Every structure is written in C-alpha cells, then in structure tokens.
Amino acid sequence: MSGDIVFFDLPGKDAEATAKFWQSLFGWEFKEGNFPGYSMIHGPSPMGGFPHGDTSKFPRVYFGVDDLDAATERIRELGGTAGETVTIPSGKFANCVDDQGVEFSIFQAAGA
C-alpha cells in the first residue's frame, strides 16, 4: 500500500462560484467530467475533481492502494469503516472513515 495522495474532491454547493474562486486563486481549469454534475480540475498535482452541489465542508483526499479489497479489509480490522467499492473508468475506490471519525477515500488505479 503506497498511501500517496492520488486525487482529491473539492466540495462546492455553487458550481460556478466554486470554479471561479479556485480558478482565480490558483489558475486551475475546470473541465467537464465523466458524468453529469462532475468536473475535473486540471492544474494541481495530483489532479482533482469537483462534484457539483457537494455541501461538504472539507476536501476529500484519495490515497492510492495496490489492492482495494485488502485495504478495505485492513481498515475494518483497525476499527474504521469502508463503504462499497465504486468502479469508474480510471479504477475503483471506496469512501472510508478511520477509527476517530475522519473521512477519506482509497483508490486503486485500473490495471493495478
């Protein structure tokens, strides 16, 4: 398990205002994502995403793993929770919570 941050989601309830703020601050580009209501954020490293209408208060980070199933099992062994696996064109991920209530996600790239 690498644990490197490989992606992030940036919340924002107003899509236009959110994109304008971050474009003005960092020069990031917001482009249409793989499905309606989602934009990809080009510019930062790692690249990010923007789920339109997300009212969360904090960005969500995605940590890279080599084996999503083994990682979700380990999270549960350590007292955390791991949600259902979601498959997308670039791989698969699971939203998780550690044993202290901190939300995060894990991601396994396609072909890994």
From TrEMBL:
Domain VOC: 4-109
Annotated signal peptide: none
UniProt cross-references to Pfam families, sorted A to Z: Glyoxalase_6 (PF18029)
Cited PANTHER family: GB|AAF24581.1, GLYOXALASE-RELATED
The protein's name in its UniProt record: VOC domain-containing protein
UniProt source species: Streptomyces hawaiiensis
Lineage: Bacteria, Bacillati, Actinomycetota, Actinomycetes, Kitasatosporales
